[in-house]
TrEMBL record:
HAMAP family: Methylglyoxal_synth
A single cellular component GO annotation: cytosol
Gene3D superfamilies: Methylglyoxal synthase-like domain
Gene from which the chain derives: mgsA
All residue ranges annotated as the MGS-like domain in the record: 9-160
Protein name, as recorded: Methylglyoxal synthase
C-alpha cells in the first residue's frame, strides 16, 4: 500500500460549519450558539437531526439538518467532510456517557483529522475557534491528495 501524498486546499471565507451534540450536551451547544449567533450568521450551518431543529428554533436562522446521529447523521456529516463540504466541526460530545453509536463518533473524528479541518469538542475550544482571525478569511490547509492516490493504484484487469 502506498503512502498518501498531500496537497493544499483553500477553505473559503464563508465556512460550512457542522454542529453536533450528544443529548446531555445539547443545552451547552444551544447556549454557546446563542452567544456566538452573530458570528455563526456569517456562515452556513449543518447539524445532525434534533440538534439542527433545536438550533433553528433557538437562533431563528437556517440550519440544514441531517438525520439523527445514532441513525446515521454522524456518518452523513463525515461524508460531507470527506467531500470537502464541511470546513469546521463543532462536536459537543459527552465523555461521561457511553454511546451506542460510538464507532460512528470515532469515525467522524477520524475523518475530520484526515481532512485536516478544525474541530472543537467543548465550549472553550469552540470559543477559541470562532474567535480566530482565520474564521472569516480564506485559509490554506494540507489535505490528502486523492487524485494522486487514485493515479498510483493498480486496477485489476477483468476477462480471460
Amino acid at each position: 500500500m502506498s503512502r498518501i501524498a498531500f496537497t493544499t486546499a483553500t477553505l473559503p471565507a464563508r465556512k460550512r460549519i457542522a454542529l453536533v451534540a450528544h443529548d446531555h450536551c445539547k443545552g451547552f451547544l444551544l447556549d454557546w450558539a446563542k452567544r456566538q449567533r452573530e458570528r455563526l450568521a456569517h456562515h452556513d450551518l449543518v447539524a445532525t437531526g434534533t440538534t439542527g431543529m433545536l438550533l433553528r428554533e433557538e437562533l431563528g436562522m437556517p440550519v440544514e439538518s441531517m438525520i439523527s446521529g445514532p441513525l446515521g447523521g454522524d456518518q452523513q456529516i463525515g461524508a460531507r467532510i470527506a467531500e470537502r463540504r464541511v470546513d469546521i466541526l463543532v462536536f459537543f460530545w459527552d465523555p461521561f456517557e457511553p454511546q451506542p453509536h460510538d464507532p460512528d463518533i470515532k469515525a467522524l473524528l477520524r475523518v475530520a483529522a484526515v481532512w485536516n479541518i478544525p474541530v472543537a469538542c467543548n465550549e472553550s475550544s469552540a470559543d477559541y475557534l470562532l474567535s480566530s482571525a482565520l474564521l472569516e478569511q480564506e485559509h490554506e490547509c494540507r489535505i490528502p491528495d486523492y487524485a494522486s492516490y487514485l493515479a498510483g493504484r493498480s486496477v485489476p484487469q477483468s476477462g480471460p
